[in-house]
Amino acid sequence: MRAVIDLPPPDVAALDALAQRNRRSRAAELRVAIRTHLEKADVVPEGAPDDASGDKDWIKRGAGYWAQREDIGDGLAYQRAIREDREFG
Fold first, then answer.
1. What residue spans define the domains of the chain?
2. How large a percentage of the chain has pLDDT more than 90?
3. Which pTM was predicted?
4. What is the greatest pairwise CA distance in the chain?
């Protein structure tokens, strides 16, 4: 859903500062605020996604997922091979 809201300039500035501190967009900060409000009111809809907080737990769950694959090869060796003709420095 898209929404248009009017915020006073001080609130926009505070929202921007918060978003920058948390390394999120304004929209992400607003989603977190709305989810927090709904949770406090105990009205989170069934089936609502759990990622509204911007939690990156999915990165932790996926870390090393392909570690045992042998068909991929060594990523660092690949990078070095494609860059060996370049001069750095």
1. 9-83
2. 42
3. 0.52
4. 61
